[in-house]
Amino acid sequence: MSGIKICGMGHYTPPKLMTNADLEKIVDTSDEWITSRTGITTRHHCVEETHSDMCREAAKMALEKAGIKPEEIGVCIVATLTSDFLAPSAACLVQRDLGLQDDTICFDLNGACSGFLFAMHTMECMLAASPQKHGLVIGAEMLSRFINWEDRSTCVLFGDAAGAAVVEWNEDYESIHALLGCHGDSDMLGVTGAGHKDPPQIFMNGQPVFKFAVTAVPWCIDQVLKRNGRTIDDVDFFVFHQANTRIIDLAVRKYHIPEEKYYKNIEKYGNTSAASIPMVLSELSQFGKVASGSRVMLVGFGGGLTWGAALVEFK
Question: Full-prediction pTM beyond 0.90?
Answer without folding.
Answer: yes
